[in-house]
Design goal:
The protein is of the alpha+beta class. The protein folds into three domains: about 100 residues, Beta-Lactamase; about 70 residues, Signal transduction histidine kinase, dimerisation/phosphotransfer (DHp) domain (Helix Hairpins), CATH 1.10.287; about 140 residues, 2-Layer Sandwich (Heat Shock Protein 90). It contains twelve helices and eleven strands. The strands form three sheets. It has a five-stranded mixed β-sheet with strand order 6-8-9-11-10. A hairpin with a 2-residue loop joins strand 8 and strand 9. The longest helix has about 45 residues. It is rod-shaped.
Length: about 425
């Protein structure tokens, strides 16, 4: 058990059990009957007074034993010096224990539930025992039962306290994990006024502050990207007016720079929109992933393989899925070393997999996760062919929004394999 409340609760119970064992051992070793009860001589004298004389008639003897049995509630028996039973008075007239059981108990004063056997001056034995109804396990181990009862009561009473304390910690842990996974709206409930409640309140304040800062940053980024569109449009118009005066090389470079800025702004705006919406807020409809891939492959000249008579329907936003496929194909074109690009679709269990393959230099294993980070480029790579470093980051965001994932793998024989996995549509007819 790794839960905190279980460990704390077991520690409490373990401490109680240890206390019970120490208390029992101490009581057993150091209890003194002379300190906690009358001396044995008292019992002998009392027995001499209570026991009927040896010459008492049998009926009178039995009547007196029944009388003392009724007053004391204990079973009584008289034995001859040789151990033969003379008379007895027991609960429900049950047989008194045999002499073989009585004799070892003579003068045994230890313990509140022990059988006592006292020898009278005339040689007879007066034996006193508990009634049969009190000879159960609880009576034999009364001290242990009492301690276990106390431990059980404390354990039952302490469980709600321990559970309440650790439940607050568990809720706080869940809130921290949710915030760490990207759920900026994660908050925890505040119960009570203890340290855990104050910690939960501080967490909520911190989470609210983080959410506000990130939302402000996203809004600022989106607004700045949007505002950049206007000066870019004016630059493009100005370049059109300079076509006849500027050298051809300068015109081409300016056009390329504006194209890259325009692409960067477009991808930043898309990334901001994806960050600001959850998967539940995304528009969804049945989409033929195979059809989208075929259309994009036709525009880029990539080869595509789709199994016939197999549904490639998914639930999602067709515009975003098209952008995902386009970015994967564009990435393969840029870094595939001019090799042919292949796209393979197939069903994989309850989902669909799409591989985009090339024969380029590949991606080192240590960098296959980092290439999906925004603006990350492999060591030695340079900006070329309009790359702004956001394409694969958008691919991963879109895949996650659709409940899927994308990974970079090494291709047999050299090159790269970007594998997209998406859940297949569960709608009837798809």
């Amino acid at each position: 058990m790794h839960r905190l409340y279980v460990r704390i609760y077991l520690s409490v119970l373990g401490s109680l059990a240890l206390f019970a064992m120490i208390a029992a051992a101490t009581w057993h070793l150091f209890a003194d009957t002379e300190t906690f009860g009358p001396k044995p001589e008292f019992y002998v004298a009392a027995a001499e007074q209570l026991a009927p004389p040896a010459n008492t008639a049998s009926e009178e003897l039995q009547k007196q034993l029944d009388h003392w049995h009724a007053l004391s509630g204990y079973d009584l028996a008289l034995f001859k010096p040789d151990g033969r039973l003379i008379a007895q008075a027991t609960e429900d007239n049950e047989p008194f224990p045999k002499w073989s059981e009585v004799k070892p108990r003579r003068m045994d004063w230890h313990g509140p539930f022990a059988m006592h056997a006292v020898q009278l001056s005339d040689g007879r034995w007066l034996a006193v025992d508990r009634p049969r109804s009190a000879r159960g396990l609880l009576s034999r181990f009364g001290w242990l039962a009492a301690l276990l009862g106390i431990a059980s009561a404390v354990g039952i009473a302490s469980y709600p306290v321990v559970r309440r304390l650790t439940r607050g910690l568990e809720e706080l842990q869940a809130g921290v994990e949710a915030l760490g996974s990207g759920n900026l709206a994660a908050r925890v409930s505040i119960k009570g006024r203890d340290e855990v409640a104050r910690l939960a309140a501080k967490f909520n304040q911190s989470a609210a502050r983080i959410e506000q800062l990130i939302q402000t940053n996203k809004q600022l980024l989106a607004n700045a990207s949007h505002e950049l569109r206007s000066p870019l449009a004016r630059l493009r118009m100005g370049i059109e007016g300079l076509r006849t005066a500027a050298p051809a090389g300068a015109q081409a470079e300016m056009v390329q720079n504006i194209h890259e800025l325009d692409l960067l702004i477009e991808e930043i705006l898309l990334a901001s929109r994806l960050d600001s919406q959850t998967a539940d807020q995304m528009h969804r409809e049945p989409v033929d992933l195979g059809g989208l891939a075929a259309e994009e492959c036709a525009q880029t000249g990539a080869e595509i393989a789709i199994p016939s008579a197999v549904s490639m329907m998914v639930q999602g936003d067709p515009r975003l899925l098209r952008r995902l496929i386009r970015n994967l194909l564009e990435n393969a074109r840029r870094y595939g070393g001019g090799s042919a690009i292949e796209v393979v679709l197939r069903r994989a269990g309850s989902g669909i997999e799409m591989d985009v393959l090339d024969r380029g230099p590949g991606v080192p294993e240590a960098e296959r996760q980092r290439i999906f980070q925004p603006f990350f480029r492999l060591p030695g790579a340079r900006e070329r062919d309009g790359s702004v470093g956001l394409g694969l980051s958008l691919v991963q965001q879109i895949a996650h929004q659709h409940g899927g994932q994308v990974v970079c793998l090494a291709r047999d024989g050299g090159g790269s394999c970007f594998r997209l996995s998406l859940p297949a549509s569960t709608l009837q007819g798809h």
